[in-house]
Request: fold
Amino acid sequence: MRRDIFQAIADPTRRAIIALIALQAMTPNAIADNFNTTRQAVSKHLRILTECELVKQEQQGREIYYSLEINKMKEIDKWLEQYRKIWENRFNQLDDLLSTIKKTKR
Amino acid sequence: MRRDIFQAIADPTRRAIIALIALQAMTPNAIADNFNTTRQAVSKHLRILTECELVKQEQQGREIYYSLEINKMKEIDKWLEQYRKIWENRFNQLDDLLSTIKKTKR
DNA sequence: TATATTTGCAACCAATTAGTTTCATTAATT
DNA sequence: AATTAATGAAACTAATTGGTTGCAAATATA
Reply:
């Protein structure tokens, strides 16, 4: 059971669920209405998302509202950080090159 | 064959390969030396990474050097953008709340 | 209380995945 | 020319995955 956040966002249906509940909490039935799949399949995705703490649930009577745990998304951002450094650095190098060319032309 | 970038980074070995070749190009053998797996397994990962254009190859004699296609990583950043907006917004709301409390105290 | 609704969970199935073993190709070395 | 090294690709296997069907539990409604 590999259950980390990268595995969680690998599935396109799960990314769609994340997008759906990012702004408002929704019940499994309501979420399933948006896809060509069964409620049970959505339920399984929600379980995976819950297990890696990307999603939190709140019970209201017999309904359970699922919503995005936005802070968990920062973990991906944190991972990206090291690569962002690289591409920003390359951009700066290009920038330097361009200004050098400019100076040479002058 | 689902072969998008999210599926590519889902595997921890592939993320390790990405980290390894981010700064310098490496041959499959050299990469495999860093893991408890066979060269062939690494080769398969490299194929997947190449197919989704996260990695580029450069032949030099009988060796093939693999390196990270850093620009492709920006796609993940682009996807994260929508969620970054949300968490920054929440942070601002908290900020507003705190300054309101400050004002009330005064 | 009986019935309907919302949900999670277990059992099962087909497809996919990560890995291994084996083989063919190409380039370097002797 | 023969051998060694570096690599990709195909065939196979075991494990995992996404999905379905069916069922049980809990809550709401008649």
